[in-house]
Amino acid sequence: MSTENKYSVPELVSFVRQGDAVAYQQLYQRFAAKILRTCKKMYLCHQDAEEVVQEVFLKVWEKREGLDSSLSFNAYLFTIMRSSIFIRSRKQALEIAYKQYQLNYGVQVTCNTEEEMEFKELKLFSEKAIASLPKGQQEVFKLKFTEHLTAEEIALRLHLSKRTVENQLYKATKRLKQEFQSSELIPSDLFFLLLIF
What we know:
Elements: H1 9-17, H2 21-41, H3 46-62, H4 73-105, H5 112-131, H6 135-145, H7 151-158, H8 162-181, H9 188-196
Helix pairs in contact: 1-2, 2-3, 3-4, 6-8, 7-8, 8-9
């Protein structure tokens, strides 16, 4: 048996947790190509896909002391990958959503500086509205729309029932919708369009 396949993934994860760079390299060799292929299936260009692979494994090394060899390392990698892709795409997606808003509402923007200022104002308003939510609602809402976790994943992370998570999400979105409806700055449907991305 080659040295490369001598240890199981859980054993390698345990070694990495202790700072073993050789075990880390072996995990990289086992999983990097799979992550790269998945990124390309999600329509990332080759360069962006390679950067995501590097980001994923950098995160693994940075968080190595918190690794749990009893959990699926494959699932852990793909959770990081998904988050990395969403973060990478976030700005572009928001810009697309805002441009769609301009088309839908007939907003004419004549200069890039003006558009940039409006976009920053919109983003700041959204962030303040989210920050005004009660702590529990805010935490669940951010996990849902920033880290793009499902209700089940949020429930597991926060040690809550799925029903509690869904209830918190409902209350948060209802409150935000009311706040945006009362504001002349941003139509509520634009805010929720941004959340889709």
